[in-house]
Amino acid sequence: MRVEANPEFTPDEAALLNPYFTNMDQPVFALTNLPEVVKGALFSRYSRTEKSLRRVLLDEFLNQPELGFHNLPVSSGGDGLVARQAAEEFYDRVLVGFGDDSVAELAGAHLAVEQVSILAAKALEDSRIGISPLEKSTRYVRFDRPGRDGRFMYHRGPELAVPAYEGSADRLFETYSELIDPLIARVRETYPIEDGESERAWKAATKAKALDLLRGLLPAGTLTNLGLYGNGRAFEYLIIKLAANEFPETQRLARAIHTQLSLVMASFVRRALDPKYGEPAIGRLVESRERLRRLARPGSAQLSPPSVRLIDFDPHAEAKVVAAALFGTSEGSLGDLTDVDSDAVLQAAMAGRANRRQRAPRAFEHSTYTFEVVANFAAYRDLHRHRMLTQDRQLLGTDLGFDLPPLLVEWGLGARVEEAVQAAAETHAQLVSEVGGALAQYVLPIGFRVRWYMRVNLREIYHLCELRTTPQGHPDYRWVAQEMFQRVQEVHPRLAAFGAFVDMGPGDDLERRRSERRIDTALAGA
């Protein structure tokens, strides 16, 4: 093992520390071969000492035999039970002694959550800050593969023990499964391979097109897989929210997640379900939801085409953006930075953007917009993953209507889809009366429309609309993003002018074709 020189440490000390850092002689380094809770304990101590982080690890962990760091097997990446337990005890003392919950953000964990419904996945992904989710895609993965028990993979739980539920869900999956291969063949006949296009890219793009056309058939109870990375504070709140959710499935998930995270970061999540902190927080969320439900107006939605309405915006937004853009380089008060050349300031702030990844400055967060959207649940599922905004949705139901892709009708497959969808709608009505509207959502295909709102600042508008209007995007969410941007253009044309990479064109007929060709280029250069 090569030991790098560092005058702060003797050669023996450096040799002892070397396995735990990416370098020993630079001021920027990463931690290696340490459990997450140990990293968190190190950083929490780090904020209350003049010592360097390497010195803290040496003096207060490695040179303390009672902590058991000699049990930490670096080569195998093991946790070292004694060391982990000691670090957790130290962490507990920090949380109790200093009352500083922010230290729970200093370490995190990777968590896999498999075989959960799309509805439960939305609850998991609803946390905006501190957790990064990644979910199985309906565009690239077939969902008709049976599970280990040979049955179609959708949520079954005692709360849904209504015979009609499984019958309708099975029919949706049977229709989806029966149509996949003929639809892929029809797509490939319609969009033959082009000169210079690899067979891999063509097959991938045409398969994605077919799956995009069929994804609306999948019920909201369809099982999916997620990967989550989050810090301790975010996971604690996620567990509380899941436990308070009205789905028994998510309540069970809360306990399962708590159990597994307790094995790797117990100090971070210990309070999530405890009687002193967690249970009262869960109870308050449940009671609040029930109070609001009693106050809601009775009634039902009416059939509605997809729509994007701008409900609220700030008529003084441009002046606020301009003032905020100048503030950091001026000496005046924010309220005094108004008598200026707005065009010149906006140009100075935004000139030279070469691509959508070059983000607008924070000044553009001073302009906010509230949209009410009606679109199918599959499009909501895609747009819900944007976390730098405020959003909420209503229950998925049947009253707003179902989006049947025109190509399925044109190719003579529409009637088969409509039959399965109608059967699911009838079962949904039965479930509403027997188990309530929330649980009845499980049987509905995600092609049914749902209403939700989004409150978004202009900086995020640029990001969301530039990303979601790229020609390879799914037509459903692409249309929503285009409509959102058009509403902004109507009220703030000068501000919207800087969304240079929003694509308002018709998109590609075979959406993934260009993207797959770029992958081929990347593979060739690898």
Order of helices and strands: HHHHEHEHHEHHHEHHEHEHHHEHHHH
Q: How far apart are the termini?
A: 31 Å
Q: Give the biggest sheet.
A: 4 strands, antiparallel
> By helix and strand content, what is the structural category?
alpha+beta
Q: What's the arrangement of strands in the largest beta sheet? A: 4-5-7-6
Residue windows where pLDDT falls under 50 for at least 5 positions: 73-79
Task: Please tally the β strands and state the result.
Answer: 7
Mean pLDDT: 89
From the alpha carbons, calculate the radius of gyration and give it in angstroms. Answer: 27 Å
Protein described:
The protein is α+β, with helices and mostly antiparallel strands and 526 residues long. It has helices at residues 11-17, 36-46, 53-62, 81-98, 118-125, 163-190, 199-214, 232-244, 248-269, 278-295, 317-327, 342-350, 377-383, 406-410, 414-435, 437-440, 458-468, 475-491, 493-496, 513-525; strands spanning 108-117, 131-135, 223-231, 307-313, 368-376, 390-393, 449-457. Helix 4 crosses helix 9, helix 8 packs across helix 10 (278-295) and helix 17 runs antiparallel to helix 18 (475-491). The longest helix has 28 residues, at 163-190. The radius of gyration is 27 Å and the shape is globular.
